[in-house]
Write a structure and sequence with these properties.
The chain has about 190 residues and is α+β, with helices and mostly antiparallel strands. The protein has a single domain (about 15-180), classed as Endonuclease, Chain A (2-Layer Sandwich). Helices cover about 35% and strands about 20% of the residues. It contains six helices and eight strands; from the N terminus they run E-H-E-H-H-E-H-H-E-E-E-E-H-E. The chain has an eight-stranded mixed β-sheet, with helices on both faces. The radius of gyration is 17 Å and the shape is globular.
Length: about 190
């Protein structure tokens, strides 16, 4: 808007939606790259498998390690590949590349990153919601029924103030992180 006060527009937490996409994979990979590359303080991948990240973004292990090396907090919250929640989700999806296999691919990729600066924990509390945070922007995918993540919608949010959508999702992820379990050494 050119003159927001003329029309009564006041920027606030209800104006945090930057873009919407009917499918997660309709969000351009350039958006994901820009958000990742621009993040200085925090990168959090709180998707149940986070599998697609390794497929769509080049050299992710090196890029993650480089971000962590300069002080950016890098965290992954993934589902427990051995849990009952995961087994039920595999039955719902009924696809050859199982949920537990996709989680294991992420855990394997994370285990190959040198050092301990990239953190990972297991949680089943986000089976129906993925939140990907890059400082004050995030991509949120509310999963629909029996659809895979890439078939669910995506919201691109930018934090504009306290108490908005961004903070609601960020607080949810923080609560899940605080209750999450460490990744076993053999994972």
């Amino acid at each position: 808007m050119l003159w927001p006060k003329i029309r009564g527009f006041v920027p606030g937490p209800d104006r945090e939606i930057v873009a919407t996409y009917p499918y997660r994979n309709a969000c351009p990979t350039a958006v994901w790259s820009r958000l990742f590359d621009g993040a200085k303080r925090e990168i959090t991948y709180a998707g149940y498998t986070n599998y697609f990240i390794w497929q769509e973004q080049p050299r992710m292990p090196e890029r993650l390690a480089a971000k962590a090396a300069v002080g950016c907090t890098v965290r992954f919250l993934v589902g427990d590949p051995e849990s009952e929640v995961t087994r039920r989700r595999e039955q719902i999806e009924a696809v050859p590349l199982t949920v537990s296999t996709r989680i294991q691919i992420t855990l394997d990729a994370l285990s190959r990153i040198e050092g301990d600066d990239v953190k990972a924990r297991l949680s089943d509390g986000h089976i129906a919601l993925s939140v990907f945070r890059f400082d004050d922007e995030m991509l949120v995918t509310p999963h629909l029924a029996n659809l895979l993540g890439h078939d669910s919608p995506l919201l691109h949010l930018r934090r504009r103030g306290s108490g908005g959508l961004f903070d609601r999702f960020a607080e949810h992820v923080e609560a899940l992180w605080s209750e999450a379990r460490p990744v076993p050494a053999t994972a």
